[in-house]
Structure formats: C-alpha cells, structure tokens
Design goal:
By secondary structure, the protein is mainly alpha-helical. Among the domains are: 33 residues, no CATH class; 68 residues. 0% of the residues are buried.
Length: 148
C-alpha cells in the first residue's frame, strides 16, 4: 500500500495507489489505516532511514579513503609532469642536433658533388690531350723507352 503521505495515523483515510503486486481491484479505493498498518509504515520508514544513514556513512568512509590517497596521487602527478618536461627538453635537443647533422650532411653532399665535378673536368682535360706522366719527367727521355 502506497499513499500520498509520508506518515499516517490510526484511523486516517487514504487512497490506495498500490504497486505492481497490488491487485487491480484495490487500486484507487479508500482504506482506513489500522494500528498494525501504522506500526508497519513507521517501521518501514525507520528501516529506510537506517539504510540511508548506513549508505551515507559508507560513502563518507570511501570519500575519506580517497582523500587519504590524494596527496600521494598529487605527488605522483607532479613527478610525472617533471618527467614530461624533461622529455620535452631532451626531444628539443635531439631535434636541434638532428637538424645540425642534416645540414652537415647536405654540406658534405654539396662538397662531394663539387669534387666529382672537378674530377670530371680534369678527366675531360686529360682525355683530350696525349699526356704521359713518365715522359714529362725530367729524369726520363723519350729515347730511353724506344726499343731498337
């Protein structure tokens, strides 16, 4: 039996609202509160209050435990933040070093291309002339190499 009031007195007239177990023939009918029903309603409300108090106490205990771990969590978070900042700095340093090495490699590649160009020019110059290193030396003469 469920009604609009939160507490009832003996001999109060109430309208039965019911629940899913209340037979439909009783829903909407008027009833008179008897002493046993008034006691039962009062007991029900007291049990509900006790359950609510117990639930609130449990919630309070859990919140107190959470608060007890909060300083440790904050300390860990601070340590992690410091590590993140350190890793960012290391990353920036490595990026800078990478850029420097990349520019050095580019410079070396340019120097290599320049040297290859010089070698090609020298080969082309030497290839167009008949040039003999032994014969151009003052110690040897062309006649020394002639076979009779």
């Amino acid at each position: 039996m469920s009604c609009n009031h939160s507490s009832f007195a003996v001999a109060d007239r109430v309208i039965i609202k019911g629940n899913k177990r209340t037979p439909p023939r009783f829903v909407g009918r008027e009833a008179v509160v008897r002493p046993q029903a008034a006691d039962l309603i009062w007991t029900y409300h007291m049990v509900k209050k006790d359950e609510n108090i117990n639930r609130l106490e449990n919630n309070l205990e859990e919140a107190a435990k959470d608060l007890a771990t909060l300083p440790k969590v904050l300390e860990e978070r601070e340590e992690m933040w410091k590590e993140v900042k350190e890793r960012r700095k290391q990353n920036m340093d490595l990026e800078s070093e990478k850029d420097m090495l990349k520019s050095k490699v580019e410079k070396l590649e340019e120097d290599t291309l320049f040297k290859k160009g010089q070698i090609t020019i020298l080969k082309d110059t030497l290839g167009s002339r008949h040039f003999d290193l032994l014969l151009s030396s003052p110690e040897f003469s062309y006649n020394d190499f002639l076979v009779s």
